[in-house]
Amino acid sequence: MQYSWEEGHALYLVGSEGYECMKESYSSTRVNNTDDIYKQVKTYLTTKQQLKQLECILKKESHQMHANNEEIKRLADDIRKQAEAALVT
């Protein structure tokens, strides 16, 4: 048995009757291309950092929204109490 490379897609194990089984699948355009790998890693790390920043912003805004919601409830309750008091007198 020997290996045979089919450009751009896969490495096959070649037997006496041709291609028998696929051993590995990978793209030839990505193999040993350090510039591509560097760009992909840089993009990944940048995206990961941006996601962390967005997560922090989202948490802050969520807490602020919760505080605003509580304030609205309190104000609505105060208005309701004032309206009830006005009707009673």
Low-confidence stretches: 1-14, 19-24
Structural class: alpha+beta
> Helical element count?
1
List the helices and strands in order. EEEH
Distance between the termini: 100 Å
Please list the strands of the largest sheet in the order they lie side by side. Answer: 1-2-3
Radius of gyration: 32 Å
Shape: rod-shaped
Output mean pLDDT: 79
- Which percent range describes the beta-strand content? 15-25%
Binned, the helix content reads: 55-70%
The biggest sheet amounts to:
3 strands, antiparallel
The tally of beta strands, per DSSP, is 3
Describe the protein in words.
By secondary structure, this protein is of the alpha+beta class. Helix content is 62%, strand content 21%. A three-stranded antiparallel beta sheet has the order 1-2-3, with no helix packed on it. The longest helix has 55 residues, at 34-88. It is rod-shaped. It starts with a strand and ends with a helix. 0% of the residues are buried.
Tags for this entry?
1 helix, 3 strands, 89 residues, three-stranded antiparallel β-sheet, rod-shaped, alpha+beta, disordered N terminus
Topology:
Blueprint: E1 2-6, E2 10-15, E3 18-25, H1 34-88
Antiparallel strand pairs: 1-2, 2-3
Summarize the structure.
62% of the residues lie in helices and 21% in strands. It has 89 residues and is α+β, with helices and mostly antiparallel strands. The protein is rod-shaped.
